[in-house]
């Protein structure tokens, strides 16, 4: 089934009876060349690029729940590539480029909207830091622009520019950043992978690995044993739990991150805006709801819900930045479980067990990374070599001292 | 979350800052041959269990004591709290 303008017109005239399911619901086969654990954004993107770009067809994606029930359905849908460090920025810019072409590639409307992101600064020191970041971005081929206060006032007049404690002096803007429809991303990748022969097996929880002589042979699941030439794990949030079944300890903690949406409001916020004096970021969905979030709760958690103090903290940040939101009403809040790695950066690497590959540690930046993460993981699974933009995301970087710590806060996961 | 402080009773978790797994109390011996590997594990690697977790909380806005709190990471239920100092002293006595 291919989507096109012609198809929409045809279906409209024939009572929409021709639309079928977007993907099959197959029984697991006894074995596959490659088994991906995790049917979220990263796992499905991996399967998609394996099938499309690397020509691998005997691939299965195992998902313990339903597609998109994890963090791909729980994020704030922001896509951007405004990182500083050389290990990160080329990777996220690669992801941004994949986002820009995603809908053509998957033939599915992911509602990628390049409405821009503005990181506000409030002090001279912060302006310098953002100027440096902007330069680092441009060196990696991304776009960046430093806005002064008068320019910013025209774009977002509702901001609290003259806040006595945190006056807004300007912002670093990336115009190509924006938002995407998170479910559309899952469905687009799932459909694209399925069309190319990938088996997407839902309600299939991995309960263990079969490892013989230091090599993985397959996975034990709630739907029986499935043999595999290679196994790729992409289960961020639950990475430690799954890898423990293979006897591995990981450099990460699981933490809960909350996100929020207000009732629908008239269009008011032009793109994504982040507060520089606290942790708060906001965008407006196409339905009108303000989508926003802030810090993680800060303690180990596998509960997909958080506590009230962080709700208050996030909303206080919002009130300091744009007091007008005090008149709006909060509609919903929810939580997702993050792999918080020890340096705030992800891992895409082989493990010491032959045939077992790992993708995780995305902290709370996994959504924007999904296309490049999938591509780089597919590259690693297909060729056994890291993708050029993901070559820094190694397990051994901690022992080697080559950590990628954007914030510079050290091995304290709840501060990243 | 309310943390049952052994000296002060139930205190709001907001008064505390969180450090992490209680095994951070057991610093490796820097004089051993494998100290480099041991410290790398100590600093970077975590068990990160789903379920009962023993963890260090600092009563920063209270009596500034370190607590070892036993908590379920799936339900956020707090199962107990002890003074980290007492644990250390008891362990020393036992040796």
From TrEMBL, chain A:
Source superkingdom: Bacteria
Gene3D superfamilies cross-referenced by the UniProt entry: D-Amino Acid Oxidase, subunit A, domain 2, FAD/NAD(P)-binding domain
Top EC class, one word: oxidoreductase
Cofactor section: FAD; FMN
Keyword set, alphabetical order: Cytoplasm, FAD, Flavoprotein, FMN, Nucleotide-binding, Oxidoreductase
GO biological process: tetrahydrofolate metabolic process
Location in the cell: Cytoplasm
Metal-binding in keyword set: no
EC number of this enzyme: 1.5.3.24
Residue ranges of domain Rhodanese in the record: 34-78
GO CC annotations on file: cytoplasm
Main location: cytoplasm
Cited Pfam families: DAO
Gene Ontology terms for molecular function: nucleotide binding; sarcosine oxidase activity
Protein family (similarity comment): Belongs to the SoxB family.
Xref: PANTHER family: FAD-DEPENDENT OXIDOREDUCTASE DOMAIN-CONTAINING PROTEIN 1, SARCOSINE DEHYDROGENASE-RELATED
Stated name of the protein: Sarcosine oxidase subunit beta
Organism (species): Shimia thalassica
Lineage: Bacteria, Pseudomonadati, Pseudomonadota, Alphaproteobacteria, Rhodobacterales
Gene: soxB_1
TrEMBL record, chain B:
GO MF term (any one): sarcosine oxidase activity
GO biological process entries: tetrahydrofolate metabolic process
Pfam families membership: SoxD
Protein name from the UniProt record: Sarcosine oxidase, delta subunit family
């Amino acid at each position: 089934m291919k989507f096109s303008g012609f198809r929409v017109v045809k279906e409209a005239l024939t009572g929409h009876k021709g639309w079928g399911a977007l993907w099959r619901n197959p029984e697991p086969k006894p074995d596959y060349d490659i088994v991906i654990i995790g049917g979220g954004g990263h796992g499905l993107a991996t399967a998609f690029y394996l099938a499309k770009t690397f020509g691998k067809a005997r691939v299965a994606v195992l998902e313990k729940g339903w597609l998109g029930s994890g963090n791909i359905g729980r994020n704030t849908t922001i896509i951007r590539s405004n990182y500083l460090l050389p290990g990160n920025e080329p990777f996220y810019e690669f992801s941004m480029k994949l986002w820009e072409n995603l809908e053509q590639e998957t033939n599915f409307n992911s509602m990628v909207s390049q409405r821009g992101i503005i990181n506000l600064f409030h002090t001279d020191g912060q302006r310098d830091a953002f100027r440096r970041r902007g330069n680092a971005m441009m060196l990696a081929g991304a776009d960046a622009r430093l806005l002064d206060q008068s320019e910013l006032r025209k774009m977002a007049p509702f901001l609290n520019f003259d806040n006595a404690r945190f006056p807004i002096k300007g912002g670093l803007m990336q115009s190509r950043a924006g938002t995407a429809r998170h479910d559309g991303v899952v469905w687009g990748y799932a459909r694209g992978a399925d069309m190319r022969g990938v088996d997407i097996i839902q309600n299939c929880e991995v309960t263990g690995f079969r490892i013989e002589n230091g090599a993985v042979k397959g996975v034990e699941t709630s739907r029986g044993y499935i043999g595999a030439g290679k196994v790729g794990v992409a289960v961020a949030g639950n990475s430690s739990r799954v890898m423990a079944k293979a006897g591995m300890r990981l450099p990460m903690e699981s933490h809960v991150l909350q996100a929020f949406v207000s009732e629908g409001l008239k269009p008011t916020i032009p793109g994504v805006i982040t507060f520089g004096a606290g942790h708060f970021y906001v965008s407006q969905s196409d339905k009108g709801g303000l989508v926003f979030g802030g810090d993680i709760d800060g303690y180990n958690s596998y509960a997909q819900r958080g506590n009230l103090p962080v709700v208050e903290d996030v909303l206080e940040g919002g009130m300091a930045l744009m007091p007008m939101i005090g008149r709006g009403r909060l509609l919903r809040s929810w939580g997702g479980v993050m792999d918080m790695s020890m340096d705030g950066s992800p891992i895409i690497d082989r493990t010491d067990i032959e045939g077992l590959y790992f993708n995780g540690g995305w902290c709370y930046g996994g959504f924007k990374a999904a296309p490049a993460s999938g591509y780089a993981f597919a590259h690693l699974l297909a060729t056994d070599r890291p993708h050029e933009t993901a070559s820094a995301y190694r397990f051994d970087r901690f022992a080697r001292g080559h950590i990628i710590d954007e914030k510079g806060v050290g091995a304290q996961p709840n501060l990243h | 979350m309310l943390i049952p402080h052994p000296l002060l009773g139930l205190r709001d978790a907001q008064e505390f800052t969180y450090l992490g797994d209680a095994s951070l109390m057991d610093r490796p011996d820097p004089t051993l041959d494998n100290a480099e590997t041991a410290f790398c594990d100590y600093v970077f690697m975590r068990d990160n269990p789903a379920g009962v977790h023993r963890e260090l909380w600092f009563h920063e806005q209270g009596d500034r004591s370190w607590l070892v709190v036993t908590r379920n990471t799936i339900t956020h239920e707090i199962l107990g709290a002890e003074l980290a100092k007492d644990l250390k002293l008891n362990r020393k006595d036992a040796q």
